[in-house]
UniProtKB/TrEMBL annotation:
InterPro entries: Cyclase_SnoaL-like, NTF2-like_dom_sf. It comes from the Bacteria. This is Steroid delta-isomerase-like uncharacterized protein. Transmembrane segments: none annotated. One of its GO terms (biological process) is polyketide metabolic process. PANTHER family: ESTER CYCLASE, POLYKETIDE CYCLASE SNOAL-LIKE DOMAIN.
Length: 137
């Protein structure tokens, strides 16, 4: 039996697989709520179009970007995803040109799913590891 928590996990997993790993931005249209909000410790964005901009920026900086879901669980409409991002820095990232260096960083995203769409996400990535691996510190 598919529970609401299982369905929420499937929605988040599909956004990662299609939207990031397959570079299919239509996944954002299909799976993200029009009132979507994205938060990190340093920024807050609103709307599916801004999420597409984030996905596009990462893909331009890391053309071989892959997000691996290491662990995922859900409760009460919220999905916690522990993940690993891997890719080669070939394009501009945070104002710096590509270095050709490979990165592998861990992070956690908490997604709130409402009416079978992702309404809100809180992301925490190991940004120090990222800039260190790219030689940008």
């Amino acid at each position: 039996m598919i529970t609401a928590n299982t369905k929420a996990q499937d929605i988040v997993r599909e956004l990662i697989e299609r939207g990031i790993n397959q570079n299919d931005l239509s996944a954002v249209d299909d799976l993200v709520h029009p009132d979507y909000r994205y938060r990190t410790p340093t920024e807050s964005l609103q709307g599916p179009e801004q999420l597409k901009t984030i996905f596009t920026g990462y893909r331009e900086a890391f053309p071989d970007l892959e997000v691996i879901i290491d662990q995922q669980f859900a409760e009460g409409g919220k999905v916690c995803t522990r993940l690993t991002l891997c890719g080669t820095h070939l394009g501009a990232f945070q104002g710096e040109p590509g270095t050709g260096r490979r990165m592998e960083v861990q992070g956690v995203v908490i997604s709130r799913v409402v009416d079978e769409r992702i309404m809100e996400e809180w992301e925490l990535m190991d940004e120090l590891a990222l800039v260190s691996q790219l030689g940008l510190t």
